[in-house]
Amino acid sequence: MSRPDTPSTLADWQAMAAGLTLETRAFVDDTFVDAVSAETFTTINPATGETLAEVASCDVADADLAVGHARAAFDGGAWSRLAPGKRKRVLLRLADLMEANKHELALLDTLDMGKTVSSSLGDMAGAIACFRYQAECIDKLYGEVAPTGEEALALVLREPMGVVASIVPWNFPLMMTAWKVAPALAAGNSVILKPSEKSPLSALRLAQLAREAGLPRGVFQVLPGFGHTVGQALALSMGVDCLAFTGSTGVGKQLMQYAGQSNLKRLYLECGGKSPNIVFADCKNLDKVAKHAAAAIFHNQGEVCIAGSRLLVENPVREAFIDKVVAAAERMQPGDPLDPGSFMGAIVDEAQYRRILGYIQMGREEGARLRVGGEALPGPGLFIPPTVFDGVTPEMAIGREEIFGPVLSVFGFDSEEEAVAMANDSVYGLAAGLWSQDIDRIMRVTRRLHSGQVFVNNWAGGDQTMPFGGVKQSGNGRDKSHHSLEEYSELKAVWMSLAT
Ligand code: NAD
């Protein structure tokens, strides 16, 4: 099958998909292997319902083996003691290989979890930029010399931690992987990646590229499988020094228990959200804001941790503004994920599809006013259109709980005070947005929002320089920026006595 080098049409992407060769085995100690149990699980394309592959289903035996190899690699020092500038060169080579293969990597994510190829290509740009940024940072971070008298030299050294396990979700499979793996590797650790069982394919392709880039044996390993098997085994392992997790708050809470039951491993959690997007009546261009507010929730089918799922609108402009949001939503219909013109793709799997439709039903029963959407589209494939509920109140489940789908809950407010109170009335604190022309109000409200990140007159703005993470039950970790490198290293205090 001939493949276009740069696919740009639906037919190009279909042709590329038909010619793919999938790696489905685990990557352990530089080798692709079946799971020790020889068990596999099925990964499906949610846009068609077709089986994509049978993938190695790792469990505790595979985790034990990988942890042993990771420890041996760390102790051997081929990576952990390599000069940072040399680690940088290998990671930059990996980024170049990702760039050269970005269409294939994007396609794997699209086939595996239903997101559009346009969105997947955006993820690849983010993933590659993350590897480059972290690689470039690592030989520019200095240790410290503490202030002492002449009787001592006191050093604060930054050292790799050892074995890092990364457990990631399915909504941005390779980008979430990059956010965890790039800084952990750059800092000199051995990394074991467990991709989601719903989207394992791009992680296994990344392993092939990592080997080609020259990462030493055992430094990067990939264990596909389920959370309750291999995920739990890594979280309970006495040989894992740090666990970096992105996923739901419920699983995050379990992982805290596992860390306590085992070796008090360092634990970073990036969990769920129910992010408020606040629109003040003083905005100049409400048409533009409405489009952004719709994209803030409907991008990636609403399967986004920082989705702007609670829209808070100042009452004098609320009716007119919601009409504009509904009009924008109607233009964001789901379509074939392989069609570069599709704005939304398919929902990741049957369980998530049922969960979203269940919340839509709940919204109706709770008395919220359905303005658009609400019915699944006919199959094959799992498609739910943009759905907007108005008149949502804080006690309704659709106004409080993370739905992780294309469902927007709209609230009205009468004062700045009320808007801030409503925005902060959540167990989550991942992201918040506000739209206003009044700089005094912007600064007042920004400081009062209890949230890891605040977007002012945009939604989801940022680049590699910005730390990404939440407060409250959205977790404690920070991905991206040089702060994420700090998370994957330990401080060692060295006090040297000197003769005076
Ligand atoms: P999930 O919590 O179900 O699964 C995430 C990962 O954890 C998967 O790899 C899964 O296999 C694994 N896992 C599940 N149970 C486990 C266990 N007992 N032990 C160890 N590992 C286990 O989440 P999901 O459905 O994959 O992703 C959606 C969630 O992720 C949403 O809540 C979303 O908000 C969150 N998320 C957060 C961020 C962020 O940066 N804060 C980014 C993306 C997604």
Automatic annotation (TrEMBL):
InterPro entries, sorted: Ald_DH/histidinol_DH, Ald_DH_C, Ald_DH_CS_CYS, Ald_DH_CS_GLU, Ald_DH_N, Aldehyde_DH_dom
Q: Which Gene3D superfamilies match?
A: Aldehyde Dehydrogenase, Chain A, domain 1, Aldehyde Dehydrogenase, Chain A, domain 2
Q: Does the keyword Ribonucleoprotein apply?
A: no
* Matches recorded under Pfam families: Aldedh (PF00171)
**Keywords, sorted A to Z:** Oxidoreductase
The question of whether Cytoplasm is a record keyword is answered with no
Where does the record place the catalytic residues? 270
Q: Which residues form the Aldehyde dehydrogenase domain?
A: 33-494
As for family, the record states: Belongs to the aldehyde dehydrogenase family.
How is this protein named in the record?
A: Aldehyde dehydrogenase
Q: Which organism is it from?
A: Halomonas tibetensis
The record lists the lineage as: Bacteria, Pseudomonadati, Pseudomonadota, Gammaproteobacteria, Oceanospirillales
